[in-house]
Amino acid sequence: MGESKLDLMQGTLDLMVLQTLTVMGALHGYGIALRLEQISGNEILLNQGTIYASLMRLQQRGWISAEWGASDNNRKAKVYSITRKGRRQFVEDAVYCQRLSSVMGRVLAMGGKGGNE
Amino acid sequence: MMQWLRMDSLRRLFQRLRSVFPNAQMDHDLDAEMAAHLDLAIEENIQRGMAPKEARRRALVRFAGVEQARQQHRESRGLPWLDVLMQDLRFTFRTMRRDRGFTIIAVVILALGIGSNIAVFSVVNTILLRPLPFRDPQNLVRIVEKYSKAGESSKTYTADATQDFQQQNRSFQSVSGYFAFTGPDNFKLVGNGQPLPVTGILVAENFFEALGVQPSVGRLFRHEEFVQHSRPVTLLSYPFWKRQLGGNRDIVGQAINMNGTPVTVVGVLPDTFDFGSVFSPGAKVDLFTPYIMDDFREDGNDLALIGRLKQGVGLAEAQNEADQLFPQLYFEHKHPDYGKGYTGQLTGLKEYVSGKLWRSLIVLWCAVGLILLIVCVNLSNLLLARAAARSKEFAMRSALGAQRGRLVRQLLTESLVLSAAGAVLGLGLAYASTAYLAHQGSIALPLLSRVRVDGMVLAWTLLIAIGAAVLFGLAPGLRISRSDLQEGLKDGGHGASEGRKHDHMRSALVIIEVAMACVLLVGAGLLLRSFLRVLDVDLGFEPSRAAAITVDDAGGSTSEQRAAIWEEVVRRASMIPGVEAAGITDNLPMSRNRSWGIKAKGGDYDGGKFQGVFVYIVSPGYVRAMGIRLTEGRDISWADIFNNENVVIINETVARKLWPGQDPIGRLALTGGAETRVIGVIADVRETNAEENAGWQMYLPATKQFGPEGAELVVRSKLPPATLATAVMSTLRQISPGQPAAEFKPIQNLVDHATSPRRFFVLLVGIFAGLGLLLASLGIYGVISYSVTRQTQEIGIRMALGATAARVQAGVMARTLRLALLGIAAGTVASFAVARGIASLLFGTEPTDPATLAGMILLLTAVAFFAGYIPARRASRINPMTALRSN
Questions:
Q1: Whether residue B455 is found in the same domain as residue B525
Q2: I need a labelling partner for B762 at 20 to 30 A (CA). Which of B184, B437, B565, B637 fits?
Q3: What is the pLDDT of residues B70-95, one digit of tens each?
Q4: Are residues B483 and B628 in the same domain?
Q5: Where residue A34 sits, what CATH number does that domain have?
């Protein structure tokens, strides 16, 4: 069904949302989307709408909490913030992700040399 | 940590479950949030200098699809497996609607199987599993004599012995009891209209307190009400209060007229308290009065004892103490010369009440379990046939990418839905049948009135419904998961002769089914034969054409007056047209049983000790009215009664034991505190029930010496009791205007009541066996019929090649009988084991009774023959031309 591939994508987006909330504190959905676009440069094409599914998932796992509040210019908006459990999870996932990416880097680098010889 | 995790995932599951169903609140929240998002984006774009229209367009592009976002959101908050389940369910309902015939048959079969299981479980649950409806019932015990040979009298204790035990024991919180020799309708309630016969039980002090029963209105008896000459009081049973007094709460504190005496009602017992269902199955009790010890000091054993153990005292400990105390108890303080020496066997009250039924109920439970198995096998078979027909559908789906697990899950969903539908319908059946059973006062089973569908029963229903679904869904599921995709697509195509391997599993199932039906039939056959044997027993009296009615004893305060009234009643009753004989007794057989002591004067049987003997105080004519055979000597005469002659009629057992090898007529016996002369010998009468051998019996005239306890007029006639009732009643009214409107009861009812537990079990096991037979024949029919359909072309070819119709028919029949005989052979082997298991429930029938076995095998074979005959006939009618042309 190709679910595993989707899972990884979901996981990546979820991790980025957690990272954003860890660094920026409480934010509304639009704010999170902007921040994600900013830090990723234009390397990731983010459909802003998809973050709402991610926010839902994170809420259901109890990693973030949501509350209706006001935005900077006094608009009604749902404001998200990371929970203690979410922080713990973020640390865990971040370490995992870094290890994975360094391993992937080495593996791919090795493959590149092999191709040269 | 684990705890946290679990809590957490539970919460998530709950959230997700909530979100599967269209959730307006969540959708609304999301829409508001997305709207806010877009507004912010548009505003920012405008600030950057875009035109409003362009700003909006860019914001929407970057958002990339509001509808998609909504969809993703919904998916992430939902539960994928539940969606799949919903899909499976929808598909199942569609399939079931399409296959309406199959669905109806399957659900009805399941309802019968599950329903009978629920009903039997309700009975088992009530009688065996559920605790008695009292406070801390595990501490309640029943105390009886260890070696009781002469009915209730030797299971009871005198007032003095009871009081001594109450004072001396250390194990019991309280010991109480009730008067064990109350016949039905022993009081008459005098109101405005005709006197009403009511049944009242005398209970000793603290009886209700010991059981932990609280009155629903008013109070229980007080200590001073158990003292002689105190103001008479009574407690009413709940049904009596509702029925006769309209549930009027003001009745408490008022007096009602019982037997001409005003008796004050002090309270009403709760609806949950049913004395009869625990202590005297099948009896209805209307009210309770205090058992005043001083009134009964010289009346011998008459208290049935119960006790409540102190907290922390075990049964063994209490039994130890009882073994010390009871042998030291005197019968009567006033007559120490009567001696001492009781025994006391303590049994948990629950065990005492229902222990004897344990085996019967377990057998019933097994029988009904077997039915469910047969139902499952049958359904499995039906589903296999359907799965074969649907193999193309499944092959197609799997070719289109459906995983095997998914297909099996689909099949299991179908079985679960069928099973659930069957369970719901079965629950209805069980509900109706338990409601019916609970109101069958004529079945002498304890606690039966409390049978109902409760939470425990519902849990059981759920369990067996799921169990059944898995069981009958398993075989088709396995078949599908193992089946070959290509095979499936090819199968059912243009093959002329159908591969037989599909039928193997189904044939095996049919054999199992027939074997189980065979076991059920043999078991039911043995029980039925036992029951017929019980009905055939020579009771020693002829219940068929006799009926009895309670006679008012008003005015009979002296024995002379009583004798005059009795003579008048018997004389006038005998003159009623159609009456052959009439007589009075104070005690009917298979009703109360009271016993005294008897010994031969100067005899040395059992060291010259008094022997327990059932006592009947009777008038002349009773022996003939009851159809008891006088084998020697003469009946009691009115002269005996008027002259206070101490004469006695004994039964053959007494004659044989006390005067072995001698003519007992004219001999002297010591009984009832007097020397009595034997004037007659009668055939043994089964006084307790039809199955136990008769004990010692004697019949005494109602004289000054031998006072009767109540009076039952027994009338023998060729006419049915109902037609005589009016004439008898008006005769009794003429003699005594206070005659209560008692029922004119056929004596046969007493016998039926005594045999009712056996009748109940035989009827149920018989019904289950019939059901099993029906299902087995359905199974045979299904398999044979199906194979004939599948082989239509093959048969057509064979007929075209010259096979005769008779030969085709014989071929199908041979196959049927092979299946049946294999099943019967397996079933017969199993039956031997089962028969040995139920040997203790049989009466006058060997577990290996060849007639029963042969009969049942024959019956099963015949039914199998007919089940196969229908498709065989169809096969022989196949037209080769049509068969070959079609398809």
A1: yes
A2: B184
A3: 777 777 766 656 767 787 888 888 88
A4: no
A5: 1.10.10.10
